[in-house]
Amino acid sequence: MAERKKRVVKPLTEEQLLKAEQLAAKKLRDNPDFYDLPESKYSVDNVADFYTKIEEGRKQRILPPEKSRYIIYLRKSTDDEAKQVRSLEDQRVECLMLARRLKIRVREEDIIEEKGSAKTSDNRPAFTKMLDEFKRGTYQGLISWSPDRLSRNMKEAGEIIEMLDLKQIQHLHFITHHFDNTPDGKMMLGILFATSKQYSDKLAVDVVRGITGNAKEGKYGGNIKKGYYGDTKTGYFMPDGTQWQLLRQAVLMRLKDGKTNQEIADFLNEAHFSSRRNEEDDYKIVKMTKQSISKLFTDPFYCGVYKYGENVANLNDLYDFLPLVTPDEFISLGRSISDSFNKEFRGRSTSSQRLDFGLLREKVICDYCGKVMTFQRTIIPKGKNKGKYMLSFYCRNKQECIRHNDSEAIKKYGHKLTKGVRAKYITAGIEWTLRHLTKNTLEAYKQYIGRLEQKLAVDKEVAKRKLKDAQDNLKREQELYNRYRNFQSIDPIEYKKHHKGRLECHKNLVDAHTVSVANMKRELVRLNEALPTEEQFVELVKSYLKTVLKTKDLVEEDAVYKEVVLNLRVGHNAISVINLNPPYDLMVDLDKVAFGGL
């Protein structure tokens, strides 16, 4: 067996760095706005949702505290009445006070009370339902008075700790105990639960500590991202000046000029494209190939979606991250994702790729067995639509559902039942419902405004935090830039010997943070604009119907369904019941809406 050839890493020379800087600066001289990112139809959240949904049940969307939905769990043991430490009302008051201190908003319907012992498992229906909602992604944060309110048995305690590992529970707060989602923190929680998870946590800590710790906060965890480095003080990914600009040129070479991956790789190699782990490291030349260009263009990190393990996070929510591409540009760079968003693929591939994004996930319920039906795509083998995908929902409950028992179905209904239902029958029912959202518009508008005000309050908190972070970073980098500029003028020889490049590095960061501050200020102005009127709300509801009738973009279509539809039940090729989300459930004209089917 031949010995594997060791890769040689070449340091960047001064002449090579100068050439790279000249190439990057030339575009800026010709067009001062060359490196500004254009407006994007889609948001980073759209891309993050795409990667969460294409691997149903495997990817967990990581949300910052401001955008997380919290639930408060209160429990009082019926068999321990005399020794009860806190009544349910006391627990409620203290948990709500903690939520206010943490700037967490908890809906009234997300406060659940239960009276039952936690000494044995499967004894608390509300608790079990709560955990199921965490697994489905309904909630991300949990507040309880103390760990023993959640569990005193090994089975449920282990389940909670496993859900912390999987990031199904992303934020956990107690009144009596400060919890950190670290191996030691989970070990202490396990002890309080009367169970131990120390061994498995310690065994895995060397592997996952950097990933699940730093990555959850959008920080550098040892995996270099070309064009960025990990800031040694904050751990955040920062744009690496000239190298970021060269990559931005590479993106535009594909999007604007239609260059191939090989041509783009040749350009970057000629420009001596380089990378480094942090701002204190020396640059190392990166040998780019057409394969590495393809991998880079399809990495959602570059628009702000950070995938690690089974988790997906939006870096733009976590700090003032400067993306390399907009969501629209990223969608155009990847074949499979551009097909799902009905956007033109700007690459050179001619082969049709599988459609990955689905509709109404977790919302379609079989009317015969009550189980959630699975979204699926089946390629059409012949006819005018040959090669295209047929979208449908399939009941996989083969053991219990009458759909899969032809003899029983014939006996009961007189005919066999379809195992699956075409998506077009379901979407037609939703379209019919949207046409008749005409009742109680004033009450629905008031409820919509209340919900919108809550969302705006959350978005403002996120924007304020990001603005403060950007202002703090700008101040710090300005101080460092001024310090190195003075040092360079006082002792240029010593500066060149030990600190060369630091001045340029901090100048790039000053520019980046200046842009971030301006963007966050504009975002706050936008969030403070007037709320829509009742007439505008009615027009918005009408626009939902127009969208689903005209769009060929599955993501845009599913966004309407996600907004309007809570869930629906499907019988034999027809919808039997549609349940709408508030406030749209107030607007249904029941005199005009009717569904058929068995």
Low-confidence stretches: 79-85, 195-212, 349-355
The biggest sheet, with number of strands, parallel, antiparallel or mixed sense and barrel status, is: 4 strands, parallel
Q: How would you write the strand order of the largest sheet?
A: 3-2-4-5
Strand proportion: 5-15%
Provide the residue-averaged pLDDT. Answer: 80
Helix vs. strand class: alpha/beta
N- and C-termini, Cα separation:
66 Å
Which term fits the overall shape?
globular
Q: Count of helical segments?
A: 21
- According to DSSP, the number of beta strands is 17
Describe the structure.
The protein is α/β, with parallel strands linked by helices and 598 residues long. The protein has helices spanning 14-30, 44-53, 88-101, 125-136, 147-150, 154-165, 183-192, 198-214, 241-255, 261-270, 290-297, 315-318, 327-333, 335-340, 406-413, 423-435, 441-490, 492-498, 502-527, 534-550, 554-564, and strands at residues 60-62, 70-76, 111-115, 141-144, 171-174, 228-230, 237-239, 274-275, 284-285, 305-308, 311-314, 364-366, 374-379, 389-394, 420-422, 565-570, 575-580. It is globular, with a radius of gyration of 28 Å. It has a four-stranded parallel beta sheet, with helices on both faces. Strands 1-11-10 form a three-stranded mixed beta sheet.
Summary of the model, kept short:
The protein is 46% helix and 12% strand. It contains 21 helices and 17 strands. It has helices at residues 14-30, 44-53, 88-101, 125-136, 147-150, 154-165, 183-192, 198-214, 241-255, 261-270, 290-297, 315-318, 327-333, 335-340, 406-413, 423-435, 441-490, 492-498, 502-527, 534-550, 554-564, and strands at 60-62, 70-76, 111-115, 141-144, 171-174, 228-230, 237-239, 274-275, 284-285, 305-308, 311-314, 364-366, 374-379, 389-394, 420-422, 565-570, 575-580.
